[in-house]
């Protein structure tokens, strides 16, 4: 297999997923591009994952101004791997819209690193944000489900692909403003009769956290099943 791999690399050398530069080894992204990705790995709010955790609570946790002094919200913990900016968004868009599903293992590894404290706190089941079946048929895959699958390989935590479904078509969130995003997704998701999330520690997976409307609506729907906790993990976060 090593000889075959060398032959393949000779004919089709590995290229960086961002800039396209030929690399000596298949790392997915070259060192130069990696250095330009703004990973969210310092001064993180313990609850929401916002990189503005400059307030320390009684337990020694860093909190952002939005979480400090407030009761715990819908989610136990929320984390994202990196900042969604003009440079890094190419990885997400290529996975989501350009059929580059081979990026899923690489992005899942980034998410795995970003979600270490979530996994340390305990996760029983991974649930990807679903697509409406018409959009799934058009795209042929759900990028969140691909990421969930790869995370399951890394963590050995099972994925529930059918606990949560999207029951109606909505406008793409990118076409909506802040308040419109909430209205657009209102009652768009539902739990299937076969779901078994009661008492479980649920990890909700999506690609990008923008305003949080999608994750919040999914979280409110999952909460109806009375899970023990709900966490969220995304590739990127708009800051």
The percent of residues in helical segments reads: 25-40%
Number of helices: 9
Overall radius of gyration: 19 Å
* Main beta sheet strand tally, sense and closure: 4 strands, parallel
CATH class call of the domain at 74-237: Alpha Beta
- Which CATH architecture of the domain at 74-237 would you pick? 3-Layer(aba) Sandwich
> What structural class should be given to the helix and strand makeup?
alpha/beta
Strand line-up of the largest beta sheet? 3-8-7-4
What is the count of β-strands? 8
Mean pLDDT: 91
Percentage of residues in DSSP E strands = 15-25%
The low-confidence runs, each spanning 5 or more residues with pLDDT under 50, are none
Envelope shape = globular
CATH topology of the domain at 74-237: Rossmann fold
Series of H and E elements:
HHEEEHHHEHHEHEEHE
Span of the ends, CA to CA: 44 Å
Summarize the model shown.
The chain is α/β, with parallel strands linked by helices and 239 residues long. It has nine helices and eight strands.
Features:
Rossmann fold; 34% helix; 239 residues; alpha/beta; single chain; two-stranded antiparallel sheet; four-stranded parallel β-sheet; 8 strands; 9 helices; globular
How does this model look, in words?
By secondary structure, this protein is α/β, with parallel strands linked by helices. It is built from nine helices and eight strands. It has a domain at 74-237: Rossmann fold, CATH 3.40.50.2020. Helix content is 34%, strand content 16%. Helix 4 (104-114) packs across helix 7 (143-155). The termini are far apart.
């Amino acid at each position: 297999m090593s000889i075959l791999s060398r032959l393949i690399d000779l004919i089709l050398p590995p290229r960086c997923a961002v800039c396209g530069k030929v690399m000596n080894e298949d790392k997915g992204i070259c060192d130069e591009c990696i250095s330009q990705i703004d990973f969210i790995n310092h001064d993180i709010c313990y609850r929401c994952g916002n990189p503005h955790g400059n307030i320390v609570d009684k337990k020694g946790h860093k909190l952002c101004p939005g979480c400090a002094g407030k009761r715990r919200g819908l989610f136990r913990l929320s984390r994202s791997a990196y900042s969604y900016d003009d440079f890094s968004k190419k990885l997400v868009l290529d996975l989501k819209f350009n059929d580059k599903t081979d990026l899923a293992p690489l992005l899942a590894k980034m998410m795995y690193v970003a979600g270490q404290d979530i996994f340390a706190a305990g996760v029983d089941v991974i649930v990807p944000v679903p697509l409406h079946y018409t959009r799934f048929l058009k795209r042929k895959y759900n990028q969140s489900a691909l990421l969930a699958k790869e995370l399951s390989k890394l963590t050995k935590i099972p994925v529930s692909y059918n606990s949560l479904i999207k029951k109606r078509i909505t406008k793409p969130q990118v076409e909506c403003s802040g308040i419109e995003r909430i209205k657009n997704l209102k009652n768009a998701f539902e739990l299937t009769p076969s779901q078994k999330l009661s008492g479980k520690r649920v990890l909700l997976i999506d690609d990008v956290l923008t305003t949080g409307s999608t994750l919040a609506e999914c979280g409110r729907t999952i909460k109806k099943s009375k899970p023990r906790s709900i966490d969220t993990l995304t590739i990127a976060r708009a800051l």
